[in-house]
Every structure is written in structure tokens, then in C-alpha cells.
């Protein structure tokens, strides 16, 4: 097991909760001089009310592009959402007009980006940036919005929030800026919070604090969470479900406890083995998945992981596997791990 506690089994109502987001066959491509980059290729998943979902994979696997597509934030050109549907309740986000999608971003679906120091406007006070969102989406007066912003900053662990709300971003540390981003993201009480590598720019001690803060506040507000990360160690202690992405596709998905107890895809097993463990000597060399992630320009119609896989078969080099059902909502795409 990893350096975090073993995940608990999911509670029964996680399966029965209302679906707030459903992504169906999402395809997002980037058109470059070298060729077509299929960053997201036929991705589907659903998110239930109050659920914490983890999307895991190496850099370039398509995690962030998937969630930017969910928010309809793909810059065109060079990117384009080529197909699929993204239902927020019963409404397809990809078919909304600009006015409607802007009313949802920040109010119903919020996003915390990877680097808080570049996500906050360095020329504006924290108060200006927080009050603008609250006044726009919550229709609060300036006085009411300021009171709400101070309350959220206090909940996020900002000391002396009443005074520090008028500071500029450069007057905060990286960890404090990330707390500000969390407070901003949750200030309108959204139904979904997307956290894109929220701790990658922070040191290890602050990472744990930020993850605990996200977990505590989202439970308090009943917010569903999509946590994007490259580390299975991070999602083990936070997430109810895990989706493992490789080369733009989901290669394994299931409840967290099932993924850790019995990973079916060789890539998932490699990610788990690469996490440091407290029950092993410090002198032991960490496991590393051999090779590099594939170039997703014009991928051949086979399993893209086969050049790095120790279990590869001949069929892996010619055909892409269909999803196999292992029971209890556990699925994987691998020729060598058929049930």
C-alpha cells in the first residue's frame, strides 16, 4: 500500500446519489503543423452529488484537457471539441450560448487551477477579485459580498481575514494563495469543484493541508469534486472513485478501494508501485514505469501502452481493447486482464 492510509470502502449511497455531471464520448483534438493531437479521445464518466472523483495519469494523458472541455474552455484554434456531450443535470454545456455558460462557470461549476500565483491577478486586491464573483453570480451588495468573502477566507484558514482581504496576491505565500483560490471557488456554493493539480506547486507539508482543506470544505458544502493529479497516493485518501487516463483515454475506472486492492491494468499497477511506501526501507529504489508516454499525434489503432508493458501480447500491437467488466463498477481496457 502507499504512504497514505488504505482507502475505506464506498458508502452505499455513493451509488444512489443524483448525477450532476455526465460526460459522454468526449473528443477534443488540437490541430497542429505536425498533425492532429487527439488529447481526449472518447472519454465518458459521470459524477454524482457529493462524490469525490480522482482523474489520474502522467503529464500529457489528457486529464486537464478533459476538464477544460467540461467547462467549454478549449481555445480555438488550435483546439476543438470534435464530439461528445457534457450534461450538467439535463443541459448540454457544449450546446449552451456564451451567456448561459458564463452563468454556470464560477456559480455552479468552479475550477481551482494548478498554480495559484498565476491564477490570481497580481494587479488587483484579493477583495476586488472575490467580490466581483459574488456580486455577479449571487447578486449581493458590495457590503454583503465582502462579508461573505471574509467568511470564506476564514473558513479557508486565512488569519486576520478582515484585514488581509485587501492585500495583493504577492503579499501571500503560495499556500495562502491556494487557500484564497479555494475560498473563491467555493464562495458561490457550486455543485461541482474541479481541482486541477491543486498542490503541485506547493511543498509536501502544505500539500497535505490543502488537500485536507478541500476535503473538509467540500463535505461541509456538499460539493462534488473532480480532483486531477498524477499521484495515486493523493487520491487514495480523498476520492470515492478513480479514473486512470493514458494517451487521451480512460484505461481503468472503479471505486478507490477496488482499484488499490486489485488493479487490472498494467499502467495502474505501475502507478501504484511508483508511490513511496512507509513499510519499505529508504534504500530501496522506487519503481519507475519504463519508457515515455506516447506521442498522441496520429496514434495507431492499438493499445498505446504496449511499448512500455511487460505483459504485452501480439494482439496489443494491432487492436485496442474494449472495456472489460470486473464487477462492482470496476472496468479496465487490457487484453491481458480479461475477466
Number of DSSP helical runs: 12
State the end-to-end distance.
23 Å
Strand order of the largest sheet: 6-7-8-3-9-10-12-11
CA radius of gyration is 21 Å
Q: Mean pLDDT, rounded to whole units?
A: 86
Poorly predicted segments: 1-16
The biggest sheet, with number of strands, parallel, antiparallel or mixed sense and barrel status, is: 8 strands, mixed
- The geometry reads as globular
Residues in helix, %: 25-40%
What does this structure look like?
- With 339 residues, this protein is an alpha/beta fold.
- The protein has 12 helices and 12 strands.
- The protein is globular and about 65 Å long.
Keywords:
Rossmann fold, 4-stranded antiparallel beta sheet, 12 strands
Summarize the model shown.
By secondary structure, the protein is of the alpha/beta class. The chain has twelve helices and twelve strands.
Please give the structural blueprint.
Layout: H1 13-16, E1 19-31, E2 36-48, E3 52-56, H2 63-70, E4 79-88, E5 91-92, H3 98-104, E6 109-112, H4 116-119, H5 126-137, H6 142-155, H7 161-164, H8 174-186, E7 192-196, H9 204-221, E8 224-229, H10 232-236, E9 241-246, E10 249-255, H11 256-261, H12 266-273, E11 324-325, E12 331-332
Parallel strand pairs: 3-8, 3-9, 6-7, 7-8
Antiparallel strand pairs: 1-2, 1-4, 4-5, 9-10, 10-12, 11-12
Helix pairs in contact: 5-6, 6-8, 8-9
